[in-house]
Amino acid sequence: MIESVQFKNFKALRDATLPLDQFTLIVGPNGSGKTTALQAVNVAVNPVPPNFDQVISAGLDQKAVVETVIAFHQPYGGINLRTVWRYGDRPLSQYVSATPERNSVFVPEELIKKLNRIRLYSLDAQSIAAFRPLHGGAELMQNGADLVVVLDQLRDGNPERFEALNEALGQWMPEFDRILFETPAQGQRAFLLRTSRGKHSIPAASLSQGTLLALALLTLAYLPDPPSVVCLEEPDRGIHPRLLRDVQEALYRLTYPENFGESREPVQVIATTHSPYFLDLYRDHPEEVVIAEKTEQGTQFKRLSDHPYLDDILRDSHLGEIWYTGILGGVPAHA
Amino acid sequence: MKIAVFSESLENEEAIRIIVDCLLGKTTETTGLPNLQARGWPGVKGSITAILRDLHYSTDAEALIVVVDSDDSPVHHNNHDQPGGADFKCRLCYLRNEVERTRSQLKPRAGRAQMKVAIGLAVPAIEAWYRAYIDPHVTESAWIQGLQSKRPPYSRNDLKQAVYGTPRPSRQLEQQRGTEEAQRLAQDLNLLERLFPIGFGSLAREVRSW
User: Fold this and answer.
1) Cα separation, A164 vs A23, whole angstroms
2) Are residues B126 and B150 in contact, defined by beta-carbon separation less than 8 angstroms?
3) Could you tell me if A256 lies within 8 Å of chain B, comparing CB atoms?
4) CATH 3.40.50 given to domain A1-111+269-335
């Protein structure tokens, strides 16, 4: 859906364009603007957007203008969504034509609906495990809170999907075979995982961080109506390297639903990572990798597939290992 | 017979075992160790020595099966088998050399015969074996000619698309389709050997000699 996001004076992104595919994995050093880029995708549709002081690049004064422009793939190819911040004013988001000579632009309602379904996740194990009050229409929150309510809804509203999720959980983590629920206090819900051996119930709060993060990712992948765009910070965090293929698979289930027998709309996924192991999994799909390169002029994004000698460079090496060396860019600078 | 399988992906193990069992004419056993897994060819290259040493000193494995993809590397040639002719860019030559070097350094263990090792080279990837005699264009010679003319007849993603219906298969689908195709291939492994005489042939001849 989103083809690119252009940034001007937006935090670490002074003048950069982030190219996006249906699936995009962004790698780069700390402070290179990966998280900022994810936030910017969400900003234009955020009911409480950040103000000028929160987004202006460090060192610029009040005369500077901050801008993000989101461009879309077909069928929304002629439309841009531009958000402008000026000192003292509220941020202004508006749809504009991608071709400057055209003044007006028709924005389909479908696009607006999709934009309202963009979600940013920075999952946190403690929030995922927390018990929560039941309420209708719950969604997984940015930090993973409300997972228990989402699971409860899935079990009641889509029992087949809930069973499929249980099965996937068992394949990913064979030590568990089922998600269970309990009521720790009136009106509250908590989840537990049942062990395959012994059928013991382990409360969410006692599960490992990796298990909780994996369950949240898996749940997202099995939702009947997931967000239109999922921006995900470090989905590999806390997960054993041998299970990273499962993380990739959960994300691909969102992006390429037809490969998994799903008939729902594909979800655009934008994820970040620092893991060479996770990056290795994208060797055959360099078009899905974007490298955030920090330069003196600010961060620049470049698609890995645009590297002119990539095949010659990689040869017998791991992509992650080669990235780590620094020759592909996107690594921290040293004094 | 207890064998360990070491390949680029865990999802291939069952398919490889089906093929090896068929070549041996008997059902093999696992070593009871966690499945060996490498992250692609660099992982195989970097850990083959350690794997061999561990299997020799710490397990009762009698044999090790190694299957790697050739990807875009030079495919093994008869000339490589001549004295001094080995080409270490060829993955088969590289692995054979590493195996021989490591085996020669291992200290004998009482009651333990030398570990048997068979190496298969899937040209360019194991999915090519899975397409054998379904797609007449997928053969070792077609790939080698393509490499020579710098116009590969198909890519690894093409093969994945053909075998799994997508270049991004799930683990489950990879395992399931691999098992199905291995069962099909096991009906007549001589034919697979005719289509892939170097990479599969190397594995088949070694295993049959055990």
Assistant:
1) 23
2) no
3) yes
4) yes
